[in-house]
Amino acid sequence: MSDGKILFRGTLDERTVSRSSAEPAATVVPMRMGTAGVGLLVNDHGEATRILSDVETYGSAGELMASVFDEPAESHQDAASEAVFAVNQTDGEEHRRVRRALRRVIDARVRDVSDQLVQDVQQSIESALALGRLDAVASIGVPVADSVMSRLLGLDANLVSALRNAVYQGYPVRELDATLVDWVRDRRAHPADDLVSDLMAELPSLDDRQVAANTRLLALSGVEVLAALITNGILCLAQDPATQSLVREDETLLPGLVHEVQRYASPIARGIYRMTKRSSVIGKYSVPAGTLLVIGVDVCNRDTSAFPDAHRFDPTRGRDFEHLTFGRGRHSCLGIPVTRLIAMQALRVFLSGTTSFGLTVEPSELRFHETMVMNGLVELPIWVECAD
């Protein structure tokens, strides 16, 4: 049985506020949200769950999202009138219409290519394990993400690189969308065997900018999150030989292991935004309509009022709990099924292909990308002993 003493990145509030993991985070914290002004950070699992479930009071952030990330204050007003939003930034009938179409094409495409994706994962991991010492980010996380982006979305290497830069190097969303629009326009003229072409056929009323925005959403919130989830799982297991052995002996523990990695080592730090449609009360605050909210996903996932031993990594915890890594309710992540499929396959192949593995550096030496949204490792150097 694991003792749960796994070192992972501290939650974002622990890194920015002088507080230990044993101290409770404030339920709601006012914070500066770029040019969108002052908003509220929600750190309480119960309050966050309520907010994500109540779409009538707490809507999608919509036009405010761009200003949080990369819109200069002086250009924001003009940009807002031209903005096009992905399905996670819309509400009402538009949201339902696009989400239904995306659900259909994602499910169909995953059914069509799931066998190839599983084979890609196996080949990537087998090639990585043959190295003996490797960087799990470069040799496993990146190849798996590239495979999914190619087989599902049909994205080429240049677009994948631009999307990854958008996640980790602050590549402006507007510039990325302009690149994607050109690619979508070409795809519309020359459809291919991929999800984006399927979406345009399923919902031809979507213009090129709308298709580009939703392509960005699927790539950034789905595929790159998947890559970080897999490498975060390897990081936890590399520090926990007891769990390695436990899951090798009983593969039925794999779903619970992946669920616990999603909670404890969430690839999302803060990436879920909402806006109040009407006045409400959150924690001790009376919040007026038009207030931007951000869910502190990593903090909520380790809320001691919601999870026993919340700061302990426990892969035998089971799945009878709700983490917020992929949101909740009507705006929950569309890629949850494929994420589970690929993450479980990756960890299954990795564990079955090794007798043991561990870090080649101290956990404290590991570096994460400097971003508020993602918990993604820059590199993960490990050694492996391969099974016969």
Structure description:
The chain is α+β, with helices and mostly antiparallel strands. Helices cover 51% and strands 12% of the residues. The chain has 14 helices and 10 strands. The strands form 3 sheets. Strands 1-2-8-5-3 form a 5-stranded mixed sheet. It has a 3-stranded antiparallel sheet with strand order 4-10-9. Strands 6-7 form a two-stranded antiparallel sheet. β6 and β7 form a beta hairpin. The chain is globular and about 55 Å long. The model is unreliable at 67-81 (pLDDT under 50).
Q: Tags for this entry?
A:
388 residues; alpha+beta; five-stranded mixed sheet; three-stranded antiparallel sheet; 14 helices
Blueprint (SSEs and pairs):
Blueprint: H1 12-16, E1 28-32, E2 38-42, H2 45-53, E3 58-60, H3 63-69, H4 73-82, H5 92-129, E4 133-135, H6 136-153, H7 157-168, H8 173-189, H9 195-202, H10 208-238, H11 241-249, H12 254-264, E5 270-276, E6 280-282, E7 285-287, E8 292-296, H13 297-300, H14 336-352, E9 354-359, E10 381-386
Parallel strand pairs: 2-8
Antiparallel strand pairs: 1-2, 3-5, 4-10, 5-8, 6-7, 9-10
Helix pairs in contact: 5-6, 5-9, 5-14, 6-10, 7-8, 7-10, 8-10, 10-12, 10-14
